[in-house]
Amino acid sequence: MVSTPENKENASATVPIQIPTESEASISDTPLSPEKPFRRTRRESRVVSPPVPADFAADNIRVSIVKTLTTLGAEFDDSLELTQLIETGLTTIAAYWRRRDSNSEIAFQGLLSILEYCLQHCYDSHEFFEKFVNALGYNTVQFWRAAVPYIFDSDMSYGTKFRDSLLFSLTLYDVNTGKNRLRELYAAVPGLRKSLLGVHAKRFSEQFHHLQRRRSIKSLRNSEESLAESSSDEEEGTNGRRRTGRSGSVDSKSSGSPEEDGFNPRSLANTHFQQRVINVSNAPPVSLKRERSGEWEIKQGSGGLVSCVDPIMSANDQNIWLANLGINMQQKKVRSHSNLLNVPDDNVTLAPTTNTLGLPLIRQNGAEVLFHVIADDDDEDDGANADVHKIREEMSLLGVLNNYNKGSYKLNPVVVQEQDYNVYYGGISNGLLWPALHNLPEYIVGDYDDPKILNEHWCSYVRVNYQFALDAVRNSRPQDFIWIHDYHLMLTGMIMQSLDQNLEIGFFLHIPFLPPDTFFTKYRLCAFPILRGLLRFTKVGFQTHRDRAMFVELVEKHFPSAKISYEKKMDIHTITFQGWTCSLGVFPVSIKNEDFLKIAKDPVTIAKAADIRKKYFGDNPDPEKRLFFSVERFDYTKGIREKLVAYRRYFERHPDRIGKDVLFQVAVTNRRSVDTYRIYQDECIELAEEINKQFQSAEYPDWKPLVFQTDGLQRSDLIAHYLAMDIGVVTPKKDGMNLVAKEMLVCNPSVGLVLSTGAGSEIQFTMAGLHPDETPNECTYHRVSDVYDVDSYADAFYNAAIEPEDERARHGHRLNEFIMANDIERWSVAFLDPGWSHLVIHQMDVRSLDDFYTLMMRTRDVRRQIVERALKGVPIQPHFGISLNNAKESLLQACEANTTILRVKTSTITEGEATLAKFDIKTEIDEFEKDLNFIKYVTSDDVYNVEQFINSLQEYHPESRDKYREEVIALGDMFTDADHFNFFFTDRDGTLKLYSCSYPASVQPAYSGVIQAQFARRCAQTCAIVTTAPMMQIGVLDVSTIPEGYYFFGASAGREWFIDPSTKFKDQSIPEADLELLDRVFLAISLLLEDPNLKHFAWVGSGLQKHYGHLTVAKQDANQSIKKTQSDEIVSKVHKIVKEIDPTGQTLSLKETETDMKIYLRERETGDIFDKGQGILLLVDHIKCDLKVGTILVCGDSETDLPMLRVCLDANAEGTYTVWVTRNDELKETVRSLCEAHNNKNYVFVSCPEVLLGGMAAATIRETSTSRPRNAE
């Protein structure tokens, strides 16, 4: 075993691996060798003579594998080709490596050789790499830990791209198999993922931004204070010296601005940039054109996607749009894929590696590092002038992009290999996915019947999705929302989640989702990864309920283990599969109404419309004449041929319409390079010519039934035709939403509409009741249910043509009102709304005790996520606040009017027989309010947000704001004197949190969890929460929101301890007979609480709790809402039970507090009761620490916490500090006497937990200095 060479991307990391002993020298010091993996001669060199053969590397890999198998003594046929040799020898070599014996080192070298071959051919075939990973089995982490240093060394020393190849190969493996092997690589190589994504650079950017703002505000505040210094000095007088520098952040102003007293930039939760939208699409929002002068021109696009998304993107100039601008790395400038990994020569252009903006970095002779974006393939002249000219061209393009980004949201190009892009877009996206998802399998390109072609094109599709995903993650921050669009990028969610699981990623499918059954059999290589890939998005939006229903049906069919639920109120499906949960919604796309209305109302457009009608019908047209108008892309999904067939049938069935009606069909030609499109378009044009020849009118000799145009219309001309037409025809076979119908009705509310069920807009209109089948007179448009039913289709034309104008206008206005009320802004806002995601707790009816406790446990989960994110420096996303607010509103709606009194059923029996539990949930409501305030402050732009939150807690002080500030200042002075605590022991309920109405509802708030964890991280070393509550089964671990590792938890008064999941221990001194006796008491009290008159004691306060070594029975709640007669009754009966089971009183002891009865087991020898002090001693003995060394902080609120203070004072009187949350004068005197008996004056009394938490929070953001003199002012 030796150490590998230094990882040149992380110079401090060395990893032990198994390699032959003769290679003990560093790899980087070893000369090139044909026998060593990742160290072979790469290609012909200028200094090598004779030249090295092109297949030298492959031959040497074969030699290495043969040598490995021979050395291992394995049987094999050495005449086999390399691929056959790998296939037969891989399993054998992997088996020897897993044995961990002397042959493992030899086998490891053989595996490296096979890996080298796989990575060299990752662009050609993924078959061998899949077999390689499968052969490693469960040992992949160990293998990557040993192999990756070789890969890194090769890349850094010889300019290969093995790391990129490995990352993509594992990504492709995960996509195809549904596994997550990429995660194993990240586990084996710590820091690889963060380095790949630039995580540290992003975090530094935010922290630096925060520091700059903080210093700027501080500088401004200093200037303001200096101006007022003289007047303030006069007002204070000689005895009015202000107290500064010791108490943390407590301000008299409600705004909470901190005083100028030495704060550092640390805070409870980092200040981050605000949330942005990262929009990712294949098509860009602009068109890029190069003028003859060589300059670049960039224009805003006008496509449907731009219209949909641009309003949201333009709202924030920090938003980012990632798209392919059609500017890709061209194949003639890049060597073949097979050679990309073997290039030592700087004169050879490499495959692009990208910077954090997603732009590739290329090494050039004429420049150092520049952004390489190429638009054409003009031949270059040799020499330095050509290089300089090239650099200027590239930089001029970047200049255009930079200028665009200054005045709008940021547009970042995604640059991919041109060969990949052509196959990804023109091949598999439009040749397979487009027709398949439209359920038009007859238009799937026949080439995909060849498995080899399908596999190659699928690899290109995954590669492009991988590049888009990588660029999106690199450009994003955890607080951003990443919005992916359409069928070109259906795998990006899966790939992004493998890179960063903190991201919120949405996907919207702009086309139908109606794949045929053959898609999952004939094309299963693509089908199943796509189905899995969509489930890896946070949320997915479909155009129609039809499409979502099909998706859910396919998931049920092909992934039977998936859990599917439906929330009717929100109309949301939620699917959980393989540990990931996805929300599915329906969001019909609309248009930006104002843009169309502005042009439609223009007098110039109105005049154009009049001219159009004159063109077809003359100056004095017959009032029965009708102009049908249809406009769409020349695509087989649009049903153009079926429309023409039905239009011909229309005149055949209704010859009286000949000479009267004209159909103006605009079919904008596109995708002529795809055979299926070209053939279809030619057939339609030929059919149009036949119709014009077939139907002629003697009365109107210039009349033509059909005008067929393949050129598009400018928007003003298009809207003019909307105004001129009588009837719009929108009849696709299968389509997404088809916004043309909406454009027509917005511009011209008086027109008729022929609409097929293949259009998503028809489904939307039907769902809205605009085509009720039971009342035909109320149908607002003419439906074509089957575009292949020619007669019915022709009848729809006829019914639209003869419909009276007033009736047509009435129907059109109804459609217009609906479309105007559901415009594009409503669509985008609805999709981006975090409230419909599964991540959010939705409002619910709280009717039973189970509803109440379930809701509180769900808020616990949300609060835990908030705490973890705040502690890790990950931004808190909006859905967390929405969840807590929905939970709070659900509880308030369940309360009695204008109160916080909650009455819920205790069982699911009929309401007349159910017992109602009564709670005062004011504390729970207040805790929700504090958490919502915490989220508001820590997500704000104010750099002093945490200090402001600390001050906001003064609103909850039981006496006054001034009293809050006074107590926090006293607490801050004590923390400053102590400076740092070696030990921190504290109670929970009543000390760090107000008592709850019921223990299952006493979930620790998020703000409290963050403050306590940060205090443990920065101000104390060994921290423990000691409580009388049980550990589990509605115990302290169930209601805590602090992550593991910050605190030890001592339950049952410290008789059982939780250090971490692998370290738990209990007090072993309790005899088994005593535990059995306690069980008998518990059973007897459980039976007692079944009495209807006493049943409510099972859920008020602590209820009935079974601890390790004692029991707790509630007799009152925190709000004193139980009648004294009932409390006396339960106390009397519990005393009777204890007396009956332990008549001598030698084993059990019953103690009463203000709200509870506690039944303890006595110590056999002394008769003492195990208390929290003994619990601390049990912990100290287990972890072997010394309380005599350093300082100790003890916090409590009741007599049961006094033993903790006694133990600490006995061990370290001088170094013990204590805080008591109480307004009880008797308890204060007890604490004071106990401390002063040990000559200790380090005690502070506060009135409520908010003061203690405020003091702890202030302590975490102050400067600490162990050399600071104690008791100094």
Task: Summarize it.
The chain is built from 40 helices and 36 strands. The model is unreliable at 1-34, 42-54, 230-267, 331-383 and 1263-1273 (pLDDT under 50).
What do you see in this structure?
The protein is of the alpha/beta class. Among the domains are: 54-208; 322-329 and 353-376 and 386-586, Glycogen Phosphorylase B (Rossmann fold), CATH 3.40.50; 593-822, Rossmann fold; 981-1065 and 1175-1267, 3-Layer(aba) Sandwich (Rossmann fold); 1072-1161, Alpha-Beta Plaits. It is built from 40 helices and 36 strands. Strands 10-6-3-11-12-13-16-15-14 form a nine-stranded mixed beta sheet, sandwiched between helices. The chain has an eight-stranded mixed beta sheet with strand order 29-28-27-26-25-34-35-36, with helices on both faces. Strand 8 (360-363) and strand 9 form a beta hairpin. Helix 1 (56-72) runs antiparallel to helix 3. The longest helix is centred in the N-terminal third of the chain and has 29 residues, at 199-227. It is globular. The protein starts with a strand and ends in a 13-residue tail after the last helix.
* Count of helical regions: 40
The proportion of strand residues reads 5-15%
The counted number of beta strands is 36
State the CATH class of the domain at 322-329 and 353-376 and 386-586: Alpha Beta
Key traits:
1273 residues, alpha/beta, Rossmann fold, nine-stranded mixed beta sheet, disordered N terminus, glycosyltransferase, trehalose-phosphatase activity, EC 2.4.1.15
